[in-house]
Design a protein that fits this description.
The chain is an alpha+beta fold and 166 residues long. It has six helices and five strands. Helix 3 crosses helix 6. It binds FE2/S2 (inorganic) cluster (2 copies). The site of one FE2/S2 (inorganic) cluster (FES) has 10 residues, from loops.
Length: 166
């Protein structure tokens, strides 16, 4: 096989929806979803900490479920819907979870914050009235080196009340 054929074979066409918009790309078949978001679509709100499925900073929502986008190939997301942190604040209006993070001082450096918020968003979408234990479980794959966990949990519970009570 020529190197040209080899190159063609290792690129794939994908079509997916990201934050409500249709996206099509011709990408290397080994590109991760995190790379697609950050490098092809300029959605750099999704952070890459470990790049091996251990820190949760790259969490996005794929068809309603939180996933570690550094462990998902972009081709696996083809035909599916992705929600990233940018999709929570269309037009710059903060989502109630983001507002609660600000109000409860739930971040220091902020590197873990997009992933934390997406994990909490996935939780509140399926359980709008979670217990503290539910919140803890929802973020058990999200590491915060700054140790902001107590305020993150307070913010998640406050966000659930904002969402339930409007
Ligand atoms: S960057 Fe994906 S889990 Fe750490
Ligand atoms: S706020 Fe710094 S890692 Fe969580």
């Amino acid at each position: 096989m020529s190197s040209r054929e080899n190159e063609a074979e290792t690129r794939k066409h994908i079509a997916l929806t990201v934050n409500g918009k249709k996206v099509e790309r011709h990408i290397p078949s080994r590109m991760t979803l995190a790379e697609l978001l950050r490098e092809e679509l300029d959605l750099t709100g999704t952070k890459v900490g470990c790049n091996r499925g251990e820190c949760g900073s790259c969490t996005v929502i794929l068809d309603g479920d939180p996933v570690l986008s550094c462990t998902v190939l972009a081709v696996e997301a083809s035909g599916r819907e992705v929600l990233t942190i940018e999709g929570l604040a269309p037009g710059g209006k903060l989502h109630p979870i983001q507002e609660a993070f600000v109000e409860h001082d739930a971040l220091q450096c902020g590197y873990c914050t997009p992933g934390m918020i997406m994990s909490i968003k996935a939780l509140l979408d399926r359980n709008p009235n979670p217990t503290e234990e539910d919140v803890r479980k929802s973020i058990d794959g999200n590491l915060c080196r700054c140790g902001s966990y107590p305020n993150i949990i307070k913010a998640a519970l406050a966000a659930s009340k904002k969402i339930v009570c409007g």
